[in-house]
Design goal:
This protein has about 325 residues and is an alpha/beta fold. The chain has a single domain (about 1-315), classed as Ribonuclease Z/Hydroxyacylglutathione hydrolase-like (Metallo-beta-lactamase, Chain A, 4-Layer Sandwich). It contains 9 helices and 17 strands. The protein has an 8-stranded mixed β-sheet, with helices on one face. A hairpin with a 2-residue loop joins strand 7 and strand 8 (about 145-155). The relative contact order is 0.13. It binds zinc ion. The site of zinc ion has 6 residues, from helix 3.
């Protein structure tokens, strides 16, 4: 009798587990966005209504894995797309562990010429794991579960000269041959930097779901904001709900003209506690205040989560 009862209890547990997974697989009607608390850096996890995951940047170090574990159910190792906005350490450092630990289908990156050991290691792992690479050399858009991802920047790639992974200068391609270490060989085209400031080579992403608009600026600064304002696409971002401000809310980004154009309901400053750069800069916060724009900081709030059904949005 006792054994029967135990069997029934465990059977009921299995049924509940299977039912939970079945319901989860149907998806929700929400787009969810988590601005992860990764210290000084950026990492944003986007989950589509049918649970496709897009990770934009990966912070500086392994802290990102801990933050991701709070968002992604235990046992699930799938991330559909990883977007590397630009190869600075506070965006790429944590991605190296993410690439190693998770199953990634595709990586988007701006193949800008930039000498960095971390960029080299990152590309090695992407190549060795046969992850599809999408070179973001021009604007484009794709739809995933009704969510539109539109790349607004960079707009053009100026292909560079000679090859060389350690060339800080000109190269048309990088050949990574690690056959001696048992790693695979890859080759990718490279683009010249927009203005030698790699922050301004950041991929800028507009994410739209119904009436909800999210603008992710990477570390793009005032120069990119000016280019976007004068572009023919500028009408597309004149009603932003949530803006992940460029360059950790530094004074080198979030110009008044750009904020007036985008008119965000909420700005996110992704930055670490007591960081050595003084982000977010006081001048930038004053500009937000003067325009009556609400802002939140990951160094104060921890991970910041919003969700939307395409009509309205809320923190959760
Ligand atoms: Zn940064």
């Amino acid at each position: 009798m006792k054994i029967d009862l135990e069997k029934k209890v465990s059977l009921a547990g299995i049924m509940i587990y299977l039912l939970f997974n079945l319901i989860s697989s149907f998806g929700s009607s929400f787009l969810k966005v988590s601005f992860l608390d990764v210290g000084q850096g950026d990492s944003i996890l986007i989950e589509s209504p049918c649970h496709k995951r897009i990770l934009v940047d990966g912070g500086e170090n392994a802290e990102t894995l801990y933050s991701l574990a709070d968002e992604i159910p235990f046992g699930s190792k799938k991330i559909d797309i990883v977007v590397l906005t630009h190869p600075h350490l506070d965006h790429i450092g944590g991605l190296i562990d993410v690439i190693r630990f998770y199953d990634i289908s595709e990586v988007w990156l701006n193949p800008v010429v930039y000498e960095s050991l971390y960029f080299e290691i990152f590309l090695k792992y992407v190549c060795d794991k046969d992850i599809s690479i999408k070179l973001v050399e021009n604007t484009f858009s794709i739809d995933i579960d009704g969510v539109r991802f539109r790349v607004l920047w960079p707009v053009t790639c100026q292909y560079s000269g000679e090859y060389g992974i350690n060339d800080a200068g000109l190269s048309t391609s990088i050949s990574m041959n690690y056959a001696s270490k048992g790693m695979k060989t890859c080759q990718i085209s490279r683009c010249l930097s927009f203005d030698e400031n790699v922050n301004n080579d950041s991929i800028v992403l507009l994410v739209t779901f119904g009436d909800f608009n999210l603008l992710l600026m990477g570390d793009a600064e005032n120069e990119v904001e000016s280019e976007l304002l004068s572009s023919t696409n500028s009408l597309e971002f004149d009603d932003i709900d949530v803006l992940k401000a460029g360059h950790h809310c530094s004074k080198t980004a979030s110009s008044q003209a750009f904020l007036e154009k985008t008119n965000p309901d909420l700005v996110i400053c992704s930055c670490g506690k007591d960081n050595k750069f003084g982000h977010p800069h006081e001048e930038t916060l004053e500009t937000f205040d003067s325009l009556d724009i609400d802002y939140l900081r990951t160094d104060f709030e921890g991970t910041i989560r919003v969700k939307t059904d395409g009509l309205s949005w809320q923190r959760y």
